[in-house]
Amino acid sequence: MTNFISRNLIFASLMGLLLLCLSGISEAQNNHDCCLSYSTVRLPRWAINGYTEQLSTEVCDIDAIIFHTKNGRSACANPEERWVKKHLLWLSQKLRKMSL
Amino acid sequence: DYNQLTVPCDKREVRNFTKVFLPIAYSIICILGLLGNIFVVMTFALYKKTKSMTDIFLFNMAIADILFVLTLPLWAVNYAAEKWIFGDFICKITRGIYAINFNCGMLLLAFISMDRYIAIVQATKSFKLRARTLAYNRLICLVVWVSSILISSSTFIFSQSYSHSINETKEICEHRSSKETKGTTLKLLLLGMQLLFGFFVPLLFMVFCYAFIIKTLVKAQNSKRNKAMCVIALIVFVFLVCQVPHNMVLLVTAINMGELNKSCDSEKKIAFAKYITEALAFFHCCLNPVLYAFIGVKFRSYFVNMMKNLWCLKYKKYKTQSSRISSDTYHSRQTSEIMSDNMSSFTM
């Protein structure tokens, strides 16, 4: 009887530990600046200096494109929107021309 | 029209707070945690020759707590400097150790409550069971540590030192997975697991085991029972006070994870709440030596002996005097004696 209990006990703890293997500390620091939503208006090309990418696989929660404007501000944009994709293409072409 | 543009949420206020608060809080936790847990480790290593299952769990918990608080100075520097300066490898190692020992500590809390449950509630049936688990103690400890290292592997894999998109000159040590993974889903999974095994599982074990222990103690005719029940109440109370606020913040974070259009104000409030409650949760490992080891009469007498000897430097003389009870004598004793012996770890 006791043998049975102890064997079950060890089995149960092993199972628990196995499940535990999947766990880990994931929580991100909360003191970094992140985009929380997207701009509703289109940003004109002439105002844009460059961009950086915010990835949901990193410290922030949503995917976003951050456009840097010529007057030193940042604007969050939805990477799925057509105008954003066009702007990115235009910026990368500009960059290629500069490097030639 | 720039007013309709959405700017990234500026958390400078939070950073100004964490820059001062966290280095101070982490230093206090590190010093107190080291002090208490090193005393526990020394007492067990030098004086306590008879090692019960509980002793072994307490010893391991103290080791886990020491390793955990040793990572805190690095985080204190990280928050004070507002950037990670130790490189990618130290980032992975630090976050890994931090994860191993946090989860290991929580797991051991659950095991300790289960061990006490077997010792007291199953006291009459448990001679053989206890003897058997004592024989398995090395195995169980090995399993606890190996699994704790496995736990940390996910944290180890997904931690990296990289430059954050908003301020590209500053390195941060943070979660990062490959671009192919679904970022929010993975984060949510890891957060859920942390909540489950870092809080709900130990809580469930404690509530179940201590409830049955109290039920047994109420029936028992034992002079020490009121004190024992007080200690149990204290252990559960401290666990709840330290862990519930932090885990509630984590729960709110998990619920809102990946949601669009969160307000910057509420994000800042959650960030403040997270850092304050997290420091409280970390403070738990400074209280563990007091709650589990120093509260026991036997442990205290060993500890007092050790301190006296260290003071007088009559180390060898006392070492040979400390009693040695073999597991054979353990078997032959009466149930009531074993019961009061088991309860000695609870007695103030």
Automatic annotation (TrEMBL), chain A:
GO terms for biological process: calcium-mediated signaling; immune response; inflammatory response; positive regulation of T cell migration. GO terms for cellular component: extracellular space. Gene3D superfamilies: 2.40.50.40. Residues 1-28 form the signal peptide. Residues 31-91 form the Chemokine interleukin-8-like domain. It is found in: Secreted. GO terms for molecular function: CCR6 chemokine receptor binding; chemokine activity. SMART domains: SCY. Keywords: Chemotaxis, Cytokine, Disulfide bond, Inflammatory response, Secreted, Signal. Pfam families: IL8. PROSITE patterns: SMALL_CYTOKINES_CC. InterPro entries: Chemokine_b/g/d, Chemokine_CC_CS, Chemokine_CC_DCCL, Chemokine_IL8-like_dom, Interleukin_8-like_sf. Belongs to the intercrine beta (chemokine CC) family. This is C-C motif chemokine.
TrEMBL record, chain B:
Belongs to the G-protein coupled receptor 1 family. It is found in: Cell membrane. This is C-C motif chemokine receptor 6. The gene is CCR6. It holds the Pfam family 7tm_1. Residues 36-292 form the G-protein coupled receptors family 1 profile domain. Its main location: membrane. GO terms for biological process: calcium-mediated signaling; cell chemotaxis; immune response; positive regulation of cytosolic calcium ion concentration; positive regulation of dendritic cell chemotaxis; positive regulation of flagellated sperm motility involved in capacitation; thymocyte migration. The keyword Hydrolase does not apply. The keyword Metal-binding does not apply. Keywords: Cell membrane, G-protein coupled receptor, Glycoprotein, Membrane, Receptor, Transducer, Transmembrane, Transmembrane helix. GO terms for molecular function: C-C chemokine binding; C-C chemokine receptor activity; scavenger receptor activity. The chain crosses the membrane at residues 20-45, 57-77, 97-118, 139-158, 195-218, 230-255, 275-297. GO terms for cellular component: external side of plasma membrane; sperm midpiece; sperm plasma membrane; sperm principal piece. It is a multi-pass membrane protein.
